[in-house]
Amino acid sequence: MTLAPDDLTIRPITGPEELELFRRLPYVLDEELAGDLAGGRRRPGWLWVALRGDRLLARAAWWGQAGAKTPFLLDVFDLDDDDPGPGPVAAGERLLRAALAEVVPAGAVPPEYLRFVPPDWRDSAPDRLAVERRLAVIGRTGARPLVERLRLEWRPGTPLPPPSGRLAFRPMNGDGELLALMTRVLDGTLDAHSRADLTRMPAADAARKHFEQELAHLRSPREWWRIATLPDGEPVGFVTPGHNDYNAVIGYLAVLPSHRGHGYIDDILAEGTRLLAAQDVPRIRAATDVGNVPMAAAFHRAGYVTFERVVSLTWD
What local confidence, expressed as pLDDT, does residue 3 receive? Predict the structure, then answer.
C-alpha cells in the first residue's frame, strides 16, 4: 500500500470481494473482470485503485494469458470523470507509476496499453475529453501512440456469399507451414504492430512472436485454419478462424505479396466467416488497423460492422 502525503491511498485490490469497489468507475470490460479473475487471466495484484477516503479517483488493471506470470496488456485505466479538476489526473499518474513498479518486472518494457472507444469518439465532446484525458496521463509515464484499430463484428443473419470457385481451401500442414506463410506476408504489411516488430527483429521472429502470443492461444481446433490455394495448389493466403476466451474470431487473415491486388482477400475472409457461422456462434469478432484500408474495406464488404475502436500506446 502507498499512502501519499495528501492521504491518497494507492494499492491493489485484496481479492474478488473488492470488485464492486473497482467497478465504481464504469468501462466496457467491467462485466468480464469476475470471469477473468476466476479464469486466471487477471490477478488481484494486477488490479490497482487510487482512493481518497472511500472515493475512487483512478484505477488500472492488467490482463494476461491464464497462468502467465506477467501480464500481456494494460487494458483498463480510468479516472473519476465526475471530478474535472486535476485531482484524478494526478492520482492516475501516481497510481500508474506505483503499479508499474510492482506489476512489471525490473528492466522489462511495460505491456501495451489499449483503450476501447466508441467508433465516433472524436465526434462526441464528452467521449473525446474522457479518452484524451486518459491518454495524456498514460503519456506522462513514457508511453507513445502506436495505432488505432477498428473492432469489427459479423452478426447472424448477415448474408454470406457462396464460394467463388477461384480458390481452393485445405487445412494447414502443421504449424511450420503457417509460420512460413506468416513470415512471407510481412513483406509490405500495413499492420502497425508487425511493422514495429520488424524494426527490432527478423521477419521469421516477428511471425513466431505473433503466432505464440495470439494464435497459439485460440481455443478451437487447428483443423479450422485454412490455407487458400490456386487450383494448381499454389498457396495464395490463409485465415485462422477460431475462438478466444470470449468470442468467435478471425484471428489472422492475409494474402501473400505476389497475389495481392486480385480480390482474393474477399474469398479468404468469406471462407473463414462461413466456417465460424456454421458453428452457430452469436457473433464473429475481428480487428484491423484504421490505416489498413484494403483489409477494412474487405471486412465491410463481407457485412462486418465497426462496433468499436481501440487506441494503442506502447512504451519504448
Answer: 45
